[in-house]
Structure prediction request, 196 residues.
Amino acid sequence: MAEKLEGAARAEALTTLGESGWAEVDGRDAIHKTFVFKNFTRAFGWMTQVAIVAEKMDHHPEWSNVYKTVEVTLATHDVDGLSALDVTLAAKMDRLAS
Amino acid sequence: MAEKLEGAARAEALTTLGESGWAEVDGRDAIHKTFVFKNFTRAFGWMTQVAIVAEKMDHHPEWSNVYKTVEVTLATHDVDGLSALDVTLAAKMDRLAS
Prediction:
């Protein structure tokens, strides 16, 4: 079961995530990042890689795609906020996009 | 080059699309439909099939996914509204989801 990120652990995670472009969502305990690729095939190819990772983690993103752009929001439903699952998935997304 | 759907052709297309759950978007010449699948794998599997079709058509959806739900908006940028491309892609999406 996921645990809600709080206090120093939360602050540290947000600082690290912030360095790669993740930002807190206004009015909601969640993080957001916009990924821009070269074209649709690259964008959707990345989404496919992430989808397999997410399914294996049993932790899924909220995301939208318009051509080469993918907007991602991460949060953990069970804790109604951020958990280590979000930090892990965010890092995997960054790695797959790099 | 795509041509904007207008008049009787537009009305007829919207009627047919309406029968399978596509609706006009408020304040924008576009159509929208919510697809709900059994789980994430089914939802993303369908998106993958659609992505290949869309890339072949060089006509891409605006879509968002949260777990088993996919929200789709279709419009044709070149005509700033609906064209036959949207009608074709909508029908292909329906067929792949059925």
In short: Chain B has three helices and four strands.
